[in-house]
Amino acid sequence: MTPRGIERALGKVERYRLLNEPAEAESICRDVLAVEPENQAAVVSLLLSLTDQFEMETQRALPEAQSLLERLSGDYARAYYAGIICERRAAALLKRSTPGSGAVVYDWYRQAMEHYERAETLRPEGNDDPLVRWNTCARTIARHGLKPAAPSPERTFLE
C-alpha cells in the first residue's frame, strides 16, 4: 500500500464493516497501519473491526481491541472507545444468552457506562456521543432486566 492509497483504503474499511465483513476491514486497517502507524482513523477502524468480531472470537479480538486504546490520541478518545469495547462485549454476550450470564452482561454494560461518563467530561462541545451511548446501555439494561450479581452470603464460623 502506498500513502496515496490510504484514504481510499479507509473508505473500503467502512464499506466492509457495513457489509458485516469485519475480517476484511481488519486486514485493510493493518495494511494502512503498516504504512502510517499513527493514523488515528485506521486505529479506530481497526478497534471497531475487532469489536465487530466479538460474537465469533472474543479470545483474540477483545485483548487486541483493548490494547489499541493506548494508541489513540487524547483522553476523550480513549475513554469513549473503552466504552465502545465494553458495550460491544456486553452486546455479544447478551446475544449468546447463556444461563447465568445476565450479571456478567450487566457488569460489562456498567463498565461501558462508567467510561462514557468519563468521556462526557472530556468531550468536545457539541459532541453528545457519550450521552447517547450511555442512554443506550441504560435502556438495554432495563429492557432485558439485567441486574448485578447477588452478593455472596458471608459465612460465620464458630470457634
Key traits:
159 residues; mainly alpha; Serine Threonine Protein Phosphatase 5, Tetratricopeptide repeat; 0% strand; globular
Order of helices and strands: HHHHHHH
As a whole number of angstroms, the C-alpha radius of gyration is: 18 Å
N-to-C CA distance: 72 Å
Number of strands: 0
Q: Sheet with the most strands?
A: none
Low-confidence stretches: none
- Helical region count? 7
Class from helix and strand fractions: mainly alpha
- Give the DSSP E fraction (strand runs of 2 or more residues): under 5%
Number of domains: 2
What is the quaternary state of this protein? Answer: single chain
Helix content: 55-70%
Mean pLDDT: 93
Overall geometric form = globular
Provide a brief overview of the structure:
By secondary structure, the chain is mainly α.
Explained architecture:
It contains seven helices and no strands. The protein has 159 residues and is mainly alpha-helical. It is globular, with a radius of gyration of 18 Å. The protein starts with 5 loop residues before the first helix and ends in a 16-residue tail after the last helix.
Question: What's the helix and strand layout?
Answer:
Blueprint: H1 6-18, H2 22-35, H3 40-51, H4 58-68, H5 75-96, H6 102-122, H7 129-143
Helix pairs in contact: 1-2, 1-3, 2-3, 3-4, 3-5, 5-6, 5-7, 6-7
